[in-house]
């Protein structure tokens, strides 16, 4: 078998990279971390942060290193998970490159700073990228679309929305996360009732926050449950 592979014209060496779709909510808008490529291929084009995995690294270690080197963001405290593998033969003009895409979420992430292969790093509105207004390098537009749909799906069945919030948050802030990511209005009363009645979703802290206007709002933190039962379904205008 080894000799056949060595002599085969149908098999060639492949490289492994990692790419990261890093999301946060800023100014009531879903943002994704992008870099401006400082090297070929796709010099000057926007792309997701990422790069080659070094021979002594695990995939996760490579993802965290690239995030730090290209954007100056410490991903060790982010909600980080594998999204999938992308390996179409023509996705990278440098040769056969298979990338492992990671999905990460975080609240109030810092202003990124470009480094290594990234001329600069910045937060970009997801809405401007998904509607085709700007094409990303490689197949990163497709990766971004997959990552966004994965987040939307997870919001229905898990407590991942709390990863976009601080350690404590109001139910209004949590509802904003759902509205921003799903792109739909949620009735505040229905949302509050659903969240409170879902065992383990959130826990009250007993403290309140005074907003600029209006009444003080109760503060909550993430509860002990990860899977939501029943789920919060999108497409109905309010939680099911």
Automatic annotation (TrEMBL):
Transmembrane segments: none annotated. Pfam families: NUDIX, WHD_NrtR. GO terms for molecular function: hydrolase activity. PROSITE patterns: NUDIX, NUDIX_BOX. InterPro entries: NUDIX_hydrolase-like_dom_sf, NUDIX_hydrolase_CS, NUDIX_hydrolase_dom, WH-like_DNA-bd_sf, WH_DNA-bd_sf, WHD_NrtR. CDD domains: NUDIX_NadM_like. Residues 14-152 form the Nudix hydrolase domain. Keywords: Hydrolase. PANTHER family: ADP-RIBOSE PYROPHOSPHATASE, SLR1690 PROTEIN. This is NUDIX hydrolase.
